């Protein structure tokens, strides 16, 4: 086996300056910065945030409002009874797919590190328990689909997901609680072929969200 080692810096060495633009005057000298969506501080200091180029210099509220015009009928819920460090990853992916809202069930606090600040642009809602989440989903006309590889589950690869959908994920260890899976419209599993019992919940959430995207998203709206 030939191992090729790169002398180029990797993602962890790129540092702050990899993304973004400098002050407006440097980037676009002489051009008017008169868009009300622009943030005066970002115009003056530069914009190094991890946002798509179309949102450079925009205020956070303006970015959220713009995504709100294109959010999908897809909601995500994750059980948070044991402090799951993967919730941040789920939130980041939900943001990338313009998910309507990420629902945190159980503990209010969660580890935001993996979210890489994307939680600032993503609607989040807390529910004390599964009963509260399910009641809320019913009122909104959302069909709850649990995602777990438990006996009796339907392969996600061939399942037809509902358009108005709430995908519910469990945690490392316990998985989706019995309380939740027994009340979901169906449980979908992601096919596995190796030795491990399950995949990381952040990865599973990405796969399941993308299954919905493949079915319903208008790719003309993608960046
Ligand atoms: C690490 S898993 C726990 C699985 C279960 N407790 C076990 O060990 O058999 C945590 C969560 O990731 C998701 N997950 C992981 N692998 C999955 C798969 N193959 N199919 C569907 N969901 C999966 C589910 O939402 C699950 O509740």
Automatic annotation (TrEMBL):
<dbReference type="InterPro" id="IPR029028">
    <property type="entry name" value="Alpha/beta_knot_MTases"/>
</dbReference>
<feature type="domain" description="tRNA/rRNA methyltransferase SpoU type">
    <location>
        <begin position="74"/>
        <end position="210"/>
    </location>
</feature>
<dbReference type="InterPro" id="IPR001537">
    <property type="entry name" value="SpoU_MeTrfase"/>
</dbReference>
<keyword id="KW-0489">Methyltransferase</keyword>
<keyword id="KW-0808">Transferase</keyword>
<dbReference type="GO" id="GO:0003723">
    <property type="term" value="F:RNA binding"/>
</dbReference>
<feature type="region of interest" description="Disordered">
    <location>
        <begin position="1"/>
        <end position="37"/>
    </location>
</feature>
<protein>
    <submittedName>
        <fullName>tRNA (Guanosine(18)-2'-O)-methyltransferase</fullName>
        <ecNumber>2.1.1.34</ecNumber>
    </submittedName>
</protein>
<dbReference type="InterPro" id="IPR029026">
    <property type="entry name" value="tRNA_m1G_MTases_N"/>
</dbReference>
<dbReference type="GO" id="GO:0032259">
    <property type="term" value="P:methylation"/>
</dbReference>
<dbReference type="InterPro" id="IPR051259">
    <property type="entry name" value="rRNA_Methyltransferase"/>
</dbReference>
<dbReference type="Pfam" id="PF00588">
    <property type="entry name" value="SpoU_methylase"/>
</dbReference>
<dbReference type="GO" id="GO:0006396">
    <property type="term" value="P:RNA processing"/>
</dbReference>
<dbReference type="GO" id="GO:0141100">
    <property type="term" value="F:tRNA (guanine(18)-2'-O)-methyltransferase activity"/>
</dbReference>
